[in-house]
Amino acid sequence: MNELSVRSYAYMGDAVYEVFAREKTVLITQNPKKLHKATSSIVNAEFHAELLEAITDFLTEEESELVRRARNLSVTSARRVNHTVHRLSTAFEALIGYLYLNDKERLRILYDKIDPLIVKKLSDPGS
Questions:
Q1: Which of 33, 95, 102, 106 is at a distance of 20 to 30 A from 12, taking alpha carbons?
Q2: Domain ranges of the chain
């Protein structure tokens, strides 16, 4: 596959992770309000940054370089999200997009690695 821009990987990763998250939350409830709340709890900049931090030591050198490049992109973010968190979220999304397009087996392994954090977040009533 041709090398895409880091921004393109992040764009793709945003959509791919959203589908992954919805696959997790749709099994929890069919109530639209609860479904939205559950999905939103694991699809947001703060949680993406938390997931990225949790897997940093697990990343290959190539993945770490991609994350570094994505983290250094200039971003515009909503007033309620700080730029550092937004950059980490973008880096997480870029990693997901890159793996989705280039190494689905590695993406599956990564999902297995973050799944316990997601399950914990979804089972937290304060989420």
A1: 33
A2: 6-123
